[in-house]
Fold this sequence. Notes:
The complex is a heterodimer of chains A (113) and B (111). Chain A has 113 residues and is mainly β.
Amino acid sequence: KAGVTQTPRYLIKTRGQQVTLSCSPISGHRSVSWYQQTPGQGLQFLFEYFSETQRNKGNFPGRFSGRQFSNSRSEMNVSTLELGDSALYLCASSPGAGSETQYFGPGTRLLVL
Amino acid sequence: GESVGLHLPTLSVQEGDNSIINCAYSNSASDYFIWYKQESGKGPQFIIDIRSNMDKRQGQRVTVLLNKTVKHLSLQIAATQPGDSAVYFCAEKTGANNLFFGTGTRLTVIP
């Protein structure tokens, strides 16, 4: 079974731009969670989607948004990028909502200049 | 609020020795704990998990210990190998809430 895939793997943007990241979960998994990982920090939870609905949301500004499609693929969008948004964005999938074990993708490394 | 922290940010061990990575948590209501391993350039990889109704769980070369009295979690790796070099994260979960991750411990295995 293929693992979680994320595209693109690397991205360079400038301040003020917006970006969209994509995540394809493991086949059959219906829950997708997004995390931001920065140097010196742990993984910070952004949001979780299940059945095309946002189920949980972390403490991030409204510039961070996401959505999930009927095939469980998910996208996250960051608008008006700031330097501090430079990070590794990780997507994790799990079989159901609030599932405990999450399976992570390789991440998208975003650099904001 | 919840907090998951690590006692040591870095740990160096000799190849073949046992490694112990520690983690503290503050939410006594947390009922599920999990350890992840993250190698450079990769996403976190599941290692082992434990529920709050247990105090020990063993996997292949790894053991997780949970001490609910002092809210402490540890990961023991037996016969540490160079391939074990990575950052290790603990995470806790409370009910249907999302996972909260610690900042990680970097394990370096010295050949």
